[in-house]
Amino acid sequence: MKLEAIELRYIEMELVEPFETSGWRETVRPCIIVTIYSDGLAGYGECVAGAGPWYSYETIETAWHILKDFCIPAVLGQDISSAEELQAKLKPIRGHPMAKAGLEAAFWDLLAHAQNVSLAKLLGGTKDRIESGISIGIQQDIPTLLRVIEQRRAQGYKRIKLKVKPGWDINVLRAVRQRFPDIALMADANAAYTVADLSHLKQFDEFNLLMLEQPLDYDDLIDHSILQRELQTPICLDESIKTPDDARKALDTGACKIINIKPGRVGGLLNAKRIHDLCLSRGVPVWCGGMLETGIGRAANIALASLPGFVLPNDISASARYWREDIIEPPFVLERDGTITVPTGLGLGVRVVPERLERVTQRREVFRA
Ligand code: OSB
Ligand code: MG
């Protein structure tokens, strides 16, 4: 396929409620929507870089720069027929996985349209629905959190993830377990602790958590392997796994027992699939993380999560959990069994609504071959 034109749109979407982690708080989600045009077809991808360098070093502005000045010039006008080929052209550009993943996602959607299949099918998906979990940000107090959990459970979410940080952890988990002794529960620290907190972190073992996500530093593997030896609770790595090689090293050193796969963090769906394949071959469970995506990024995540190794509930919630009005139709809804149905239409399997996309666009640039 000849990549005839590529469009970048910087969009901003207001979240239905603020999202707070150990390190930052978001009320508006900015992102870049990448569109690749070829032979009368369009493929859409979402770049999940944030407003600031809080989750990773990438931001909307660094991603725009890397896409515009390096990634797009490397592929524009070229005839590219696979994601492997696309990634080979991006290889000289070091780092910046979210920028690359946004472009690669648009390419995958385009490829699926050209081959008349759904993205899920093209990636090797085997499930017709994926298990949906919900990530609940830090709340103002414990009674509020208990109410939020109650409400989310009533909506059908079967796995609850709580954001934790020093001062909002043991006390909170104890109260939640007292009120909900049997729910599938986990915690995500977004790198808020150090290995010096070992005896504190051991207390997490009291709460029968499915896993503890990224307790230590964002690029650490070694201290996680020390911590995992001391903890009964399985450690799941998020921030620390940036490449398939990181995944292999983490598993070889016992730094984690579970991996959260986010296509943006690992440079795209191709690397995401490679990590999935590695974990599947070693019997290591994976699940798909989220970055508060719009329907475009969410659709790609759902396609990915339809692969057989995604055996734990994903951070893929219904559109309404994030947006008053998504930019795709139909929106993703939570089924009564706590799942989301994998679209079977071509490509992402959802329709991008042009007027809605236009309404949230702050900046737009088109590059032609
Ligand atoms: O650490 O998993 C995370 C959101 C933004 C950045 C990082 C994370 C998250 C979430 C929310 O936990 C997942 C989602 O529902 O999209
Ligand atoms: Mg996380």
Can you walk me through this structure?
This protein is α/β, with parallel strands linked by helices. It has two domains: 5-116 and 352-368, 2-Layer Sandwich (Enolase-like, domain 1); 121-341, Enolase-like C-terminal domain (TIM Barrel, Alpha-Beta Barrel). The chain is built from twelve helices and 15 strands. The strands form four sheets. It has a seven-stranded parallel β-sheet. Strands 3-2-1-15 form a four-stranded antiparallel β-sheet, sandwiched between helices. It starts with a strand and ends with a strand. Bound molecules: 2-succinylbenzoate (OSB) and magnesium ion (MG). The site of magnesium ion has 7 residues, from loops.
What is the molecular shape?
globular
Question: What summary fits the major beta sheet?
Answer: 7 strands, parallel
| Second rung of CATH, namely the architecture of the largest domain | Alpha-Beta Barrel
The H-and-E topology, N to C, reads as EEEHHHHEEHEHEHEHEHEHEHEEEHE
Determine the mean pLDDT: 98
Structural class: alpha/beta
| Associated small molecules | 2-succinylbenzoate, magnesium ion
- What's the CATH first level of the largest domain? Alpha Beta
| Number of discrete helical segments | 12
Query: What is the C-alpha radius of gyration, as a whole number of Å?
Result: 20 Å
Count the beta strands.
15
